[in-house]
Each structure stands twice: as C-alpha cells, then as structure tokens.
C-alpha cells in the first residue's frame, strides 16, 4: 500500500488513537488532547469530516457499540489499510527527524553551530557582530 502524500496532523492522530482499540469520536478527541499535552485539539467538525473521508479511503470503518446504553454511539475501528498508512507515515516522520538530527546535531543534545554558540546558533535571534 502506498499513500500519496503526508497525513494531516488530524488524520495522523485519529489513526494513532485507533491503533489499540475502537473508539468513538469524542474518545478520539480526548485521547489526542491527552497524548499531545493539549497541543493538538481536534474539534468535532474536523473529527467527523476526517472520519468520513477516512471511511471512504477504507482506512477506518464504523462499527456498532456493544454497550446497550450506548447503542447509537458510533465507534471507529482501524482497518488493515489504515494500519499500513499509519506505519508508512511514522516511517516518513522518523526519516525527517533523522535528517534534521544529522544537520542540527540534536542527537548530541544541542544544535550544531560552527561558531560554537549553543544558546544562539547562527545568530538566529539577531544579527551577530
């Protein structure tokens, strides 16, 4: 399976949240906020628009809740195709980080800079004298 372009942040986190088990939309929104420390918030419009598109792509499927008190709630489940798409995206992101690390030297705990200024590499915060 080959995906054509990088996933949006929303698509990425929706697929990631479904990796271990099916969830309802609100559960996906909560889990995304939790695992990103609140940095990423998926609103309901984005959530249901994205899930609709991912269902059409067959990356996820809608299943019925087995909870008798929650029969109307839609649960989403990751398909095998969705798992492959997520794995490809994680591999792509790892390659990007490795490329950045090789240039920036982050694997050594700081930014590489020929001037040796770890606090202000390459004069980023202003013009060097």
Uncertain runs with pLDDT below 50, 5 residues or more? Answer: none
CATH architecture: Orthogonal Bundle
Shape descriptor: elongated
The total number of structural domains is 1
How are the strands of the largest sheet arranged? Answer: 1-3-2
Rg? 20 Å
Overall mean pLDDT stands at 85
Number of strands: 3
Helix fraction, binned, reads 40-55%
CATH class: Mainly Alpha
Can you describe this structure?
The structure is a single chain. The protein has helices at residues 9-17, 25-35, 44-56, 80-104; strands spanning 23-24, 60-64, 74-78. With 129 residues, the protein is mostly helical. The chain has a three-stranded antiparallel β-sheet with strand order 1-3-2. The model has no long low-confidence stretch (mean pLDDT 85).
Short description:
By secondary structure, the chain is mainly α. It has helices spanning 9-17, 25-35, 44-56, 80-104; strands at residues 23-24, 60-64, 74-78. It is built from 4 helices and 3 strands; from the N terminus they run H-E-H-H-E-E-H.
Please render the helix and strand layout as text.
Layout lengths: L8 H9 L5 E2 H11 L8 H13 L3 E5 L9 E5 L1 H25 L25
Provide key terms for this protein.
Arc Repressor Mutant, subunit A, 129 residues, 9% strand, 3-stranded antiparallel β-sheet, single chain, mainly alpha, 4 helices, 45% helix
């Amino acid at each position: 399976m080959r995906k054509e372009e990088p996933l949006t942040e929303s698509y990425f986190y929706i697929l990631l949240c479904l990796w271990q088990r099916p969830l309802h939309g609100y559960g996906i929104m909560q889990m995304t906020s939790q695992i990103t420390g609140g940095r990423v918030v998926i609103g309901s419009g984005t959530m249901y628009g994205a899930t609709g598109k991912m269902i059409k792509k067959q990356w996820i499927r809608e299943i019925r809740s087995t909870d008798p008190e929650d029969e109307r709630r839609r649960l989403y489940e990751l398909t095998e195709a969705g798992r492959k798409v997520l794995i490809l995206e994680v591999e792509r992101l790892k390659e990007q980080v490795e490329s950045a690390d090789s240039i920036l030297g982050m694997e050594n705990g700081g930014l590489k800079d020929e001037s040796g200024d770890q606090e202000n590499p390459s004069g980023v915060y202003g013009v060097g004298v």
